[in-house]
Inverse folding.
C-alpha cells in the first residue's frame, strides 16, 4: 500500500475489529506521525532526535506503543457507547459478516423487547468486542547498512534489523510482523536474538511471524529456514505475483489458482515438515517440547473484487482469511490518501495503471500515472535537471560509480549515468532509449510518504510535496470514494460498488496480466541470440500459462454467476497464446 497510506490505519479501523499493517521502514515519517498524534490524546510530544543512539529503533517502538494506547482507549470508549443509531458500537456490529455469531446475537438483541433480557445481551455483546490486530510490515530488501559518525558499521544496525528491533521492543501483544519481498538471511538470523517471537509453554506467541509468498516452494524454503532457528511462521500470506499493488514479483507463469491448489494438497505436509524441524530447534534452544504444531494460517490477497470471489477462496481453497488492499485506498476512514491522489484513483482506467520500472530497486512496480510525483519528475527532466535530491536513502543500493551505495533515482546517480552514456557516443535513438530508462526512476521514499504530510498539514521534508502511489490493477474497478461501512458491505455481498458489470473474474484478470507480461518479455528480445538464450524461460512460462488455463477450465464452482463469460475469457486467452507461439515459435506443444 505504500508508506503513508496505512501509517495510521489502526487508529482508523482497529476499534472495529479490522486488522491492518503499518510499514515501519521510514522512521522520519514515523517521527512526524508521533508529533501529530501525541497532542491528539493530550500528551506532550517529545522529539527523538537523529543524534540519539538507536533513534530509529526508539522512534518505531514509541510510535507503535502510542498507536496501541490510542486504539485501547478507543475500544474502551466504544464498549461503553449506547446501542443507538449512528453510534460506533452499532457500526461495529453492523459491519460484521452476516453469518458471524456476534452479528446474529446483535440482531437478537435489537429485536428483544424485554428490557432486562436486552441488557444481558448488550453486556454479552460488549464483552465480545475485539480490536483488529496492529501488524507491521518490513520489506526485506530494504536493508541498507548503517554507519556511525566515525564511519564504522553499526552492529545489528541495518534498516530491516532495526525495524525488527523497534517492533520487538514494542508493547503490542498478539500482533504480527509481515516479511515481504523474499528471504533476507541477515534479518532472519537476527530473529534468534528476539525472545518475543518464542512460543510460551502453552504454544502461544506474544508476537508472530507472517511471510508473504508467491508460491508453495517459497513457503517451504523460508519456513524451513526459520524453523531451524526455532522460529515458527504463524501465517503464509499468498499474494498474486502480478495482480497486486506495489512491487510485483512475477512467477514463471504460475497462476494463482494452481498455486492455491498446491497449498490445499500440501498444507498438512508443510505443517508437519516445519514442526519436525521447529521442535528439534526449540528443544535445543529453550529445552521446550510441544505435543502438536502451533497453528499456521493461510491467507490470500491480490485482485479480489467481489463477495463471490472472496467466498470461493475460503471454501474451495480453505483459506483462513483474505486481504483486500487496493480498494481501501478509496476509503478515507481506513487509509491516508491526499485529495488530489484520491481524485486520480477514482478516475483511473486501465491505461493509467502501469507495471513500471520506476522503482530504484530494479523491481517492477505498479504505478498510477498522472500523480504530482510523476509531474515533478517530468518537470526536472524538461529543465535539464533529472533525478531527485536523496535525503532518506532507504533505496540506496547502487555502487556503479561510488563506493557508498546511492539511489538510482537520485540526482547524483542520474548525472553520472547520463554522462557515461554521452561518452559512449551511441546512436541518437539508442542513447535516447537508455537515457529514458535511467530517468524513469522515481523517488519513492518521499513520494509514498507525503500523503500523510499533506492530509495532516505536518512537515515531512521542507519543499518536498510530490506524491506517488502504487495501487494494484484492481483499482480500475472501483471509481468512487466510499465509507468504511459501504466497503465492508461490498466485501460481504450486502451491496455492490463495482464500477463495471463486465469486470473479469480475479483469476482471469491475473491470467491476462501474465499474458501481457510474456508479450512484453518476448518483444524486448529483438536479437536472435538474446532470444535463444531465454528460449527455455519463455517455453516454461508459456507452458505454465497453458496448464493454468486447463486447470481453470476444470475448476468447479468458480465464477458461478458468470460461468459462460469465464469460459469465453479462457478461450480468448488460449487464442492469444496461440498467436504468440505462432509468431515467436516459443514451443512446439499446443
Amino acid at each position: 500500500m505504500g508508506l503513508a497510506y496505512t501509517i495510521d490505519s489502526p487508529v482508523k479501523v482497529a476499534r472495529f475489529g479490522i486488522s491492518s499493517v503499518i510499514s515501519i521502514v521510514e522512521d522520519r515519517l514515523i517521527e512526524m506521525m508521533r508529533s501529530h498524534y501525541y497532542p491528539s490524546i493530550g500528551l506532550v510530544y517529545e522529539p527523538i532526535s537523529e543524534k540519539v543512539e538507536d533513534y530509529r529503533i526508539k522512534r518505531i517502538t514509541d510510535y507503535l506503543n502510542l498507536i496501541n494506547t490510542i486504539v485501547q482507549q478507543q475500544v474502551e470508549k466504544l464498549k461503553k457507547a449506547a446501542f443507538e443509531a449512528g453510534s460506533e458500537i452499532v457500526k461495529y456490529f453492523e459491519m460484521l459478516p452476516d453469518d458471524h455469531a456476534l452479528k446474529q446475537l446483535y440482531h437478537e438483541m435489537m429485536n428483544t423487547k424485554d428490557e432486562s433480557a436486552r441488557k444481558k445481551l448488550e453486556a454479552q455483546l460488549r464483552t465480545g468486542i475485539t480490536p483488529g490486530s496492529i501488524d507491521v510490515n518490513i520489506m526485506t530488501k530494504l536493508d541498507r547498512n548503517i554507519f556511525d559518525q566515525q564511519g564504522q558499521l553499526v552492529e545489528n544496525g541495518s534498516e530491516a534489523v532495526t525495524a525488527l528491533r523497534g517492533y520487538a521492543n514494542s508493547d503490542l501483544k498478539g500482533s504480527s510482523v509481515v516479511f515481504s519481498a523474499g528471504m533476507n538471511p541477515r534479518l532472519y538470523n537476527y530473529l534468534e536474538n528476539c525472545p518475543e517471537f518464542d512460543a510460551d509453554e502453552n504454544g502461544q506467541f506474544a508476537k508472530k511471524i507472517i511471510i508473504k509468498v508467491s508460491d508453495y516452494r517459497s513457503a517451504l524454503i523460508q519456513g524451513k529456514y526459520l524453523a531451524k532457528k526455532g522460529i515458527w511462521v504463524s501465517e503464509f500470506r499468498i499474494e498474486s505475483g502480478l495482480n497486486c499493488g506495489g512491487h510485483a514479483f512475477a512467477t514463471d507463469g504460475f497462476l494463482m489458482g494452481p498455486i492455491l491448489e498446491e497449498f490445499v494438497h500440501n498444507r498438512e505436509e508443510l505443517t508437519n515438515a516445519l514442526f519436525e524441524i521447529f521442535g528439534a530447534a526449540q528443544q535445543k534452544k529453550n529445552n521446550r517440547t510441544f505435543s502438536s504444531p502451533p497453528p499456521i494460517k493461510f491467507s490470500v490477497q491480490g485482485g479480489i473484487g467481489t463477495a463471490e470471489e472472496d467466498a470461493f477462496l475460503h471454501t474451495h481453497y480453505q483459506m483462513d482469511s483474505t486481504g483486500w488492499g487496493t480498494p481501501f485506498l478509496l476509503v478515507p476512514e481506513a487509509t491516508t490518501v491526499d485529495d488530489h491522489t484520491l481524485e486520480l484513483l477514482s478516475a483511473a482506467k486501465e491505461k493509467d495503471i502501469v507495471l513500471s520500472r520506476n522503482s530504484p530497486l530494479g523491481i517492477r512496480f505498479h504505478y498510477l500515472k498522472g500523480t504530482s510525483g510523476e509531474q515533478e519528475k517530468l518537470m526536472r527532466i524538461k529543465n535539464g535537471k533529472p533525478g531527485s535530491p536523496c535525503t532518506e536513502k532507504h533505496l540506496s543500493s547502487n555502487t556503479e560509480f561510488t563506493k557508498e551505495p546511492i539511489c538510482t533515482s537520485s540526482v547524483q546517480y542520474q548525472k553520472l549515468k547520463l554522462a557515461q552514456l554521452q561518452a559512449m557516443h551511441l546512436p541518437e535513438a539508442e542513447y535516447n532509449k537508455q537515457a529514458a530508462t535511467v530517468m524513469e526512476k522515481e523517488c519513492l521514499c518521499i513520494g509514498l510518504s507525503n500523503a500523510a504530510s499533506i492530509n495532516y498539514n505536518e512537515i515531512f521534508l521542507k519543499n518536498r510535496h510530490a506524491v506517488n502511489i502504487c495501487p494494484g490493477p484492481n483499482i480500475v474497478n472501483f471509481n468512487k470514494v466510499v465509507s468504511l461501512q459501504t466497503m465492508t458491505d461490498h466485501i460481504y455481498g450486502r451491496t455492490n460498488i463495482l464500477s463495471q458489470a463486465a469486470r473479469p473474474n480475479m483469476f482471469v484478470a491475473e491470467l491476462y496480466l501474465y499474458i501481457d507480461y510474456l508479450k512484453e518479455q518476448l518483444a524486448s528480445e529483438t536479437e536472435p541470440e538474446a532470444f535463444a538464450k531465454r528460449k527455455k524461460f519463455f517455453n516454461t512460462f508459456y507452458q505454465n500459462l497453458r496448464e493454468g488455463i486447463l486447470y481453470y477450465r476444470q475448476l468447479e464452482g468458480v465464477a458461478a454467476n458468470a460461468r459462460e463469460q469465464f469460459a469465453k475469457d479462457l478461450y480468448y486467452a488460449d487464442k492469444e497464446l496461440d498467436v504468440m507461439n505462432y509468431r515467436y515459435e516459443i514451443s512446439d506443444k499446443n
